[in-house]
Write a structure and sequence with these properties.
Elements lengths: L2 H23 L25 E9 L2 E10 L5 E6 L3 E7 L6 E8 L4 H10 L3 E9 L2 E8 L4 H15 L5 E6 L4 E6 L2 E3 L5 E13 L5 E11 L5 H9 L5 E11 L8 H17 L1
Antiparallel strand pairs: 1-2, 1-13, 2-3, 3-4, 4-5, 5-7, 6-7, 8-9, 9-11, 10-11, 11-12, 12-13
């Protein structure tokens, strides 16, 4: 083998080694999360005059948000939101009617401040306050608010949480739905993150992006722009976070019943007013 050929082979081998090292450190490509799709191609909450919706965001077995809501055609609205340390329940007989809220808060020392905030708000009236089992419950009456906006807002929070990953689209003509499956990969955000174990489906209405249901799970490792960072993070005990997202939207006729706590609070308030007179 002459000297020129040897140098050429050495150069090729060096390039191959460099490519292998580069591949071991940097991912060959990154995926585009659903959030980067054009606005009209992103998942959204269906529009309907009457519906019932529910959903949850769970991170490493801890509930970050869980909600259940209903909006009726004749005006009844109901919403329950669980944020872990705070649970909020709202009821409204029809738009323009008073909104009744029950807020259950862990008694962690911040309840006095919360009471002061309620009492200083001229649009809210504190009807009842009780303490049981390390928690404080406030029942409030508020004017001029449409709970339907809050139901839609809670649904949007869950649906937009689906935006973190990319999806593979599969049409299902038999059921008049489109099925999307989440994809593993490296994603570019404010920091590069790595998604593995992506499973489940998002189902939309017909050929639209209106989400009818979703049940997806993935493991996410933050601040992992390279294989080296990913490996070092695992060695340091930085395990990926497991996210479980679920959503259901059912349009059509539904009903909203007035919760018992609303009736009890109104009755107690009426009795106190009569005693005062």
């Amino acid at each position: 083998m002459d000297r020129r050929t040897a140098r050429l082979l050495n150069g090729v081998l060096a390039l191959c080694c460099l490519a292998l090292v580069f591949a071991a450190v940097y991912p060959f490509s990154t995926a585009s999360p659903h959030a980067e799709n054009p606005v009209d191609e992103r998942f959204t909450v269906p529009e309907s005059d009457e519906y019932r919706a529910s959903g949850a965001i769970v991170a490493d077995s801890e509930t970050a948000l869980e909600f259940e809501g209903a909006v009726t055609a004749d005006g009844g609205r109901y919403l329950f939101i669980d944020e872990g340390a705070v649970q909020t329940e709202q009821y409204q007989a029809s738009p323009g009617d008073p909104v009744y809220s029950r807020i259950v808060v862990e008694d962690d020392g911040s309840t006095d401040r919360r009471r002061e905030q309620i009492q200083s708000d001229t649009d809210r009236e504190l009807l009842q306050e009780t303490r049981t089992d390390g928690a404080v419950t406030f029942i409030i009456k508020q004017e001029s608010e449409d709970v339907a906006d809050d139901v839609s807002g809670a649904a949007s929070v869950v649906v937009m949480s689906l935006y973190l990953v990319e999806y593979e689209r599969e049409a299902d003509a038999a059921q008049a739905v489109t099925v999307y499956k989440p994809k593993n990969g490296w994603y570019e955000g404010r920091e590069t993150y790595h998604v593995t174990g992506a499973t489940g489906t998002v189902r939309t209405v017909g050929d639209t992006t209106d989400v009818r249901s979703a049940t997806v799970t993935w493991d996410l490792t933050e601040s992992a722009g390279t294989y080296a960072e990913l490996a070092l993070g695992r060695l340091a005990g930085k395990a990926p976070e497991t996210y479980d997202l679920s959503f259901e939207f059912d349009s059509g006729e539904t009903t909203v019943n007035r919760p018992a706590w609303v009736t009890d609070a109104r009755t107690e308030r009426s009795g106190q007013s009569q005693d005062a007179s």
